[in-house]
Every structure is written in C-alpha cells, then in structure tokens.
Amino acid sequence: MILYFSAEGNSAYAAKKIAAAMHDHVVSMEKCDPVLSLQEDEMLGIVTPTYFWQLPSFVRAFLERLQLAGSHQSPYVFLVASYGTTPGFTGEDARRLLAARGIHMSSAFSVHMPDTWTPVFDLHDPEKVKKINQKADAEIERVIAKITAHITGNQMARRIPYLMHRLADPAYSKARRTSHFHVEDTCIGCHLCERNCPVQAIQIKDGKPVWVKEQCVLCLRCLHHCPKFAIQYGDGSTKKHGQYHHPDI
Fold this sequence. Notes:
By secondary structure, the chain is an alpha/beta fold. The chain contains 8 helices and 12 strands. A hairpin with a 2-residue loop joins β10 (202-205) and β11. The chain is globular, with a radius of gyration of 18 Å. The model has no long low-confidence stretch (mean pLDDT 96).
C-alpha cells in the first residue's frame, strides 16, 4: 500500500509511479482510515511533500494516528519526500513519529520536483518546470529500484539535521496563519477552494472564500487550483510566480 498527501500533484505523481512499478495500489491520506491492515509481505509506502524542511502538518497528524493492525511481521516501510530545495529533516521526522506508534521505518528517499511555495519560487516558466519534472522522472526510477531491493536507511539527498526543527517549527507555524491569504475581485465564488481544503479552513460567505481557521496546512492548493487565480498569499509575489499543478495529475 502506498499512502500519499499531495496538493499540486507532485507527491501523487510519485506515489502512482512507484505503485505501478510495484504492482501496488495508492490511497490518499485524505481518504484513508489511519488503522491499516497489511497483507502478508505487503510493504507500506508514505509519499509526502516537504513544507518548511519538515512534514506537512496534515501528514504529521495522520502519522500520529497511524496503526498497523493484524500484521504478522514487521513490514518494509519507506518514506519518499518530494522537495524543491531540500527534504529537510522529513526522514527523521517520520521515523520518530512512526517509532512512537511502534512502527519501524525501514528507509527514506527524496525526489527533487518543482517547488510549489510560490511566495518565494517562480514557476511561471513552463520550460523550466518541464525540465525539473523530466529529471524527477529519472530520480523516481532510481528510488523504485532501491525500494525493490529493500534498501534500508536514510537515503535522502540534501537532508538537514533534525536539530533544525527548532528553527523550522516556529517559522512553519507563523506561515500557516490564514491571515496571510487574500482574495482578489476576480473570484467567481465557485466553491472549489472550499471543497479542496484538506482541513476545511475555507468557507464561502457572500460569494467569496473566508478562512475560518487561524491556521491551515499551507499546501496552497486553494491558490494553485483557483480557476481565476484570485487567491493570493502575502505581498503579491505569488501573482508574479504563477500557478502550478503536475501536468500528469
């Protein structure tokens, strides 16, 4: 079983590629009961993006509830983190969370993909994005080969020490404040952002989206999938840097 969380499609794409190669099936964490029952010799994969050097808050919450029921032996459990600049300490983060649930994480891998954090990163050039995704395909194939061989240990590139969570945690918490979002007049009140938010932080009121929670996951799904690009974050950089979703998802 391959579990994934994905907002703009990068992790969904990687999860589906891995599952196809392993003749396995994929399940979104948003649609999955955290109590899992694995078949004999079945492996468990977790595919996630990297937010602020760490696991997204949604993935952390899922792993904190994860249970493996009825497993007769320790399965091969692996993590794959997509990232733009660094997978940070996602591997160690996941290892600790799973260990607290009595689950041993066998290995961790990383795949460089377009960074969807458009308050900083510019994704308006389709050729640039295409080249990154082409290189990602080759990386995913290498990860598949290692998973097939049941390679163990933290195999992530560009990872950083877990100690950096002391800086990353407060930065992520601050950035997750929904007060950073605003809506432009081009909004058509289509309800897509409301339906797509993984933590139900958005409601349509008087025809416009309103953030009803102080914090969200910061996945930017609402921004990147808005048909009118009416949702923006921060000082206006997102408008210049464009929208993104993986072309094959």
